[in-house]
């Protein structure tokens, strides 16, 4: 990412990047500080990847030199090689059967790898909200729901859940008899009773 792209990210996105890459940004409030931390993280990752690429290239060159040395030694012993084809076949089988060690993934930024980018991402199906929020707010809420960060500070994982029970104010008023309808087993409250004034039955 370029510096301009990093600076254009929102505070929540910057904190999410740092959180996913195990960088503590709990007490950072200024966006400039977050941007500088992400830039440092990206630069460190770039340097680490260049170092790993140099190591892999040196390893490939070393293997190529060893292969050339083996071929040179086997070509110098040409007559003895034709006399013993069985050991050479066994050696070639061993080369085929030995697994090639893969380099361990670098600890750093969570970039998609070839395996993850070739397979389609798994979608988590979440129930659609009632449509009371605008689309931008719904997208933000679903993103925060997936990350597990606190909606207010966006620093720490959310450790409390607010669950809507499904009742609306009209449902509650109907159950309590506040809408002047008589429900079975529930007395209806008059206007005077609502405001604490005694009714004729109380006198």
Report on the architecture of this protein.
With 203 residues, this protein is an all-alpha fold. The protein has a domain at 3-117. 55% of the residues lie in helices and 0% in strands. The protein has helices at 3-8, 11-20, 31-76, 78-83, 85-97, 114-118, 135-147, 169-176, 191-194. Helix 2 packs parallel to helix 3 (31-76). The longest helix has 46 residues, at 31-76. The radius of gyration is 34 Å and the shape is elongated. 3% of the residues are buried. Mean pLDDT is 69; it is low at 111-117 and 179-183. Residues 39-62 have a biased composition (Basic and acidic residues). Residues 39-136, 181-203 are annotated as: Disordered.
Q: Unreliable segments (pLDDT under 50, ≥5 consecutive)?
A: 111-117, 179-183
- What is the alpha-carbon Rg in Å? 34 Å
Order of helices and strands: HHHHHHHHH
How much helicity do the residues have?
Answer: 40-55%
Measured distance between first and last alpha carbons: 78 Å
Structural class per helix/strand content? Answer: mainly alpha
Main sheet summary: none
Number of helices: 9
- Strand portion, in percent? under 5%
Mean pLDDT equals 69
**Total E-strand runs:** 0
**What spatial form do the alpha-carbon principal axes imply?**
elongated
